[in-house]
Amino acid sequence: MPELPEVETTRRGLAPHILGRRIAEVIVRDTRLRQPVPAGFAQALRGRRVVDAQRRAKYLVLQLDNGDRVLAHLGMSGRLLVVEPGLAPRAHDHIDLLMEADDGARALIRYHDPRRFGAMLLWPAGEAGHPLLDHLGPEPFSEAFSGEYLYALSRGRKAAVKVFLMDGRVVVGAGNIYASESLHRAGIRPSRAAGSVTRPAYLRLAAAVREVLAEAIEQGGTTLRDYAGADGQAGYFAQDLRVYGREGEPCRACATPIRQAVLGQRATYWCPSCQR
DNA sequence: CCCGATTCCTGTAGGC
DNA sequence: TGCCTACAGGAATCGG
């Protein structure tokens, strides 16, 4: 499931194949993503050079040489893969970008998304913001994100702290897996009301979020079923997960069996002994 | 504003 | 072995 580390891993994997290169050809086989691929998408990209590849939250932002930007989201099952030009498309291969370098080197960037929860949008030059990015909270690695920030924002909030942490308006990038992992590292029970979590606990939580995300990026993300990096390889953080998907198994810290419950319509895992 | 529930989608795992 | 159902979940949206 692409959360921040998976999107960042994808960005890093794509970069050498797209930066400074020209989009020679665009093929859209299926426009039916979470939001339809806009009419004129292929036309707008064709011939353009990619000058930067950034990430904002779980979105990839490709900056083009005419000021237009491509906004891509992997949804739940999306992959952006670098494959051999000419490789025949398979099921759910919705979009191809054929990249060409000045020296003639070519690479095919292929968007694959069985569940079609992702997005591939055009963000035209001149539009300063984008509606999908407008309301987003701070990046977890930014100065704006801190324990103090979480503490202040959470006062009076009755929602579970895990739901609070997964809210993109609070902080971006922590999805279901990394929210559970961060709360375990910080020793906070996921069901606690966000407003009842203490300042010291939020200081630990902010540090834990950064730590977990950074480690996951180093491992190339977490592959449970759908996710693969741009090179098609699995990420290795799954072996470092301490609670996610480990119901009934011993806590790696204290051996107490890990518990599971649904919180905010999402499976949530925690250690009843380490997390209070 | 806040919060919980619903919706989109398809592959896969688990139960019988 | 095969069928059926539940589940996976990012994020927009809606109702209270």
Please tell me about this protein's structure.
This protein has a 4-stranded antiparallel β-sheet with strand order 1-6-7-5. Strands 2-3-4-8 form a 4-stranded antiparallel β-sheet. 25% of the residues lie in helices and 22% in strands. The model has no long low-confidence stretch (mean pLDDT 92). β6 and β7 form a beta hairpin. It has 276 residues and is an alpha+beta fold. The two termini are 27 Å apart. The chain has helices at residues 4-18, 41-45, 131-134, 147-154, 161-166, 176-186, 199-218; strands at 22-28, 50-56, 59-64, 69-73, 79-83, 93-100, 106-112, 119-123, 259-263, 266-270. The protein is built from 7 helices and 10 strands. α4 packs across α7 (199-218). The chain binds a DNA duplex (16 and 16 nucleotides) through residues 1-3, 32, 34, 58, 73-77, 92, 113-118, 132, 156-159, 163, 166, 168, 175-177, 224-226, 264-267.
